[in-house]
């Protein structure tokens, strides 16, 4: 007899430790338009929105480069908000591994990895973690939303009304 099919665990957003903020980031490629969208959502340990960003960018040469660029933008955004203890989460395992590897990065996006490390030297503490797409829904929705923006949008302590449902479904203290 065959074993029963395994149910995949539901991955949801989890809060950072007390005293930290969590910045989730993601990129979406818009086929045929030569552009991509980036999204960053920053929350506190209780899950409340501190700020969010949705920005359209010119499509870089690779998705990895786009993921590295949005990670760099997330770090800069946290600095702009004067947040100094931040957990950064993205769904690109390759980018998170590159940042966490202390050696030189010789990939085509290595210069952006070095920029991220340099930006992080201005933070008190920073942690980079990989998260499955299910734990990154709000950042993904913000990236998708950039298609309707002229350049970029920023929200402080709120979200656009069309993303409230995503926020509520993404939010979990479990």
List keywords for this structure.
about 170 residues, alpha/beta, six-stranded mixed sheet, 5 helices
SSE pattern:
EEEHEHHEHEH
Proportion of β residues?
25-35%
What is the topology, as strand order, of the major beta sheet? 5-4-1-2-3-6
Coarse morphology: globular
Question: Would you kindly provide a brief summary of this structure?
Answer:
This protein is an alpha/beta fold and 174 residues long. It contains 5 helices and 6 strands, in the order E-E-E-H-E-H-H-E-H-E-H. A hairpin with a 4-residue loop joins strand 1 (21-30) and strand 2 (35-43).
Give the helix/strand layout.
Layout: E1 21-30, E2 35-43, E3 49-58, H1 63-80, E4 85-90, H2 93-100, H3 110-120, E5 125-130, H4 137-145, E6 152-156, H5 164-170
Helix pairs in contact: 1-3
Commentary on this structure:
It is a single chain. By secondary structure, this protein is an alpha/beta fold. It is 30% helix and 26% strand. It is built from five helices and six strands. It has helices at 63-80, 93-100, 110-120, 137-145, 164-170; strands spanning 21-30, 35-43, 49-58, 85-90, 125-130, 152-156. The chain has a six-stranded mixed sheet with strand order 5-4-1-2-3-6, sandwiched between helices. Strand 2 (35-43) and strand 3 form a beta hairpin. Helix 1 (63-80) packs parallel to helix 3 (110-120). The longest helix is centred in the middle third of the chain and has 18 residues, at 63-80. The chain is globular and about 45 Å long. The mean pLDDT is 91.
């Amino acid at each position: 007899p065959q074993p029963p099919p395994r149910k995949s665990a539901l991955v949801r957003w989890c809060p950072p430790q007390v005293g930290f903020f969590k910045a989730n980031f993601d990129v979406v490629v818009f086929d045929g338009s030569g552009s991509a969208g980036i999204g960053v959502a920053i929350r506190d340990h209780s899950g409340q929105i501190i700020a969010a960003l949705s920005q359209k960018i010119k499509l870089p040469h690779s998705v990895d480069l786009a993921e590295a660029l949005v990670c760099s933008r997330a770090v800069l955004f946290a600095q702009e908000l004067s947040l100094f203890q931040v957990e950064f989460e993205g769904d690109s395992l390759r980018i998170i591994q590159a940042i966490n590897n202390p050696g030189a990065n010789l990939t085509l996006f290595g210069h952006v990895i070095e920029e991220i490390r340099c930006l992080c030297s201005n933070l008190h503490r920073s942690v980079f973690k990989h998260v499955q797409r299910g734990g990154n829904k709000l950042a993904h929705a913000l990236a998708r939303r950039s298609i309707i923006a002229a350049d970029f949008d920023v929200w402080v302590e709120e979200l656009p009304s069309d993303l409230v449902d995503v926020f509520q479904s993404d939010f979990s203290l479990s």
